[in-house]
Specification:
Length: 342
């Protein structure tokens, strides 16, 4: 029997996971069921706890631990969170002794320092070489380099193919590729560019355990490669000039090509949906969750350009197996041609 190619990287040893496949901490979508399933299948997941109450964060951490003994992290975004709430979020994460914290958007050195002092491993997701260097200087243990292909909020302005190797050269800590990664072939490509793993959002949003609404998952499966748009029109609830990538819908179609240059204060507050008694406004950053009711089509349907390659909604374990198997097949093809042995 031929031995299967080994996909393990040094990052796997740091994270105590089997595969260098990280599940993004998507706000609202990445809850305990998904994170535990990813961890059990050999990947590494993050709870998406952006602007969530400390009570919910505590419940979700406990819920993951009830399902698995494997490590996982929590994703927070200091730049998009009220200072008092951020303090409470950090406090509960420290009290629960989470394995890691993943921060995003502009680099907040104080949050990194405090997380490190509390014994947490720190990831920082960035979109530029400058921010990667700043995050490493602040003490981040792992840098996630996000290309403009990514879904959800997008910090990067160039493609992963261009950004990733530049970040790898600029920092000394492990780097993970994010944006455009949803397959085994893309995992091998990331490793070839110097990364030690991939960070996947869209691929895990479209899984059974994801807390996204079924409508959102269906739209991802139905999407073609050119069906996402890059826009800052979904501006309510986030800092200014914060573009996102979403599947085109009636709202983006109605912009008439005016996709950028929108300000939260200029947008009328029109309620289009409800989330557990909380009103959701048109052009807010809320995406439809399992418990969301209302005009789901008029919400932010976050997805990366890889949505055009997603053809089903399997379990998280099946998604990881799919990535692993296709990565091993890609390696085998390279070895057959002699490229991998040169």
């Amino acid at each position: 029997m031929t031995e299967q190619p080994d996909l393990r990287t040094p990052l796997c040893d740091i994270l105590s996971c089997r595969y260098p496949i990280l599940q993004a901490g998507m706000g609202g979508v990445a809850r305990a069921e998904l994170v535990a399933a990813v961890a059990q299948a050999g990947g590494y997941g993050f709870l998406g706890m952006v602007r969530e109450s400390p009570e919910l964060i505590a419940r979700e951490i406990d819920a993951v631990r009830a399902k698995t003994g494997r490590p996982f992290g929590v994703n927070l975004i200091p730049a998009a969170t009220d200072r008092v709430l951020l303090e409470a979020e950090l406090a509960v994460c420290f009290d629960k002794k989470v394995h890691s914290l993943c921060f995003f958007w502009s680099v907040h050195a104080d949050a990194v320092r405090r997380a490190k002092d509390a014994g947490c491993l720190v990831f920082y997701q960035v979109g530029s070489v400058e921010d990667a260097v700043a995050a490493e200087t602040a003490g981040a243990d792992v840098i996630i380099a996000q290309g403009v292909e990514a879904g959800g909020h997008v910090r990067g302005t160039v493609t992963s193919l261009v950004l990733l190797p530049q970040v790898v050269r600029a920092v000394s800590v492990p780097v993970v590729g994010s944006g455009g990664f949803a397959s085994g072939e893309s995992l091998i490509a990331a490793l070839a560019l110097g990364a030690q793993g991939i960070h996947c959002g869209t691929a895990f949003l479209a899984t059974e355990e994801s807390f996204a609404h079924a409508y959102h998952k269906e739209r991802i499966v139905a999407a073609h490669l050119e069906d996402t748009v890059y826009t800052d029109a979904f501006a309510i609830n986030w800092p200014p000039d914060s573009p996102v990538r979403v599947i085109a819908n009636s709202l983006t179609d109605g912009l008439g090509g005016h996709l950028l240059g929108h300000k939260s204060e200029d947008i009328p507050r029109e309620v289009v949906a409800d989330e557990d008694g909380r009103s959701i406004h048109k052009f807010s950053t809320d995406s439809p969750l399992r418990t969301t009711t209302g005009e789901l089509e008029a919400l932010a349907l976050f997805a990366g350009q890889v949505a055009g390659t997603i053809e089903s909604v399997p379990s998280a374990a099946a998604r990881i197996a799919e990535i692993v198997n296709s990565a091993r097949a890609a390696l085998a093809r390279l070895q057959h041609t002699g490229i991998a042995n040169q």
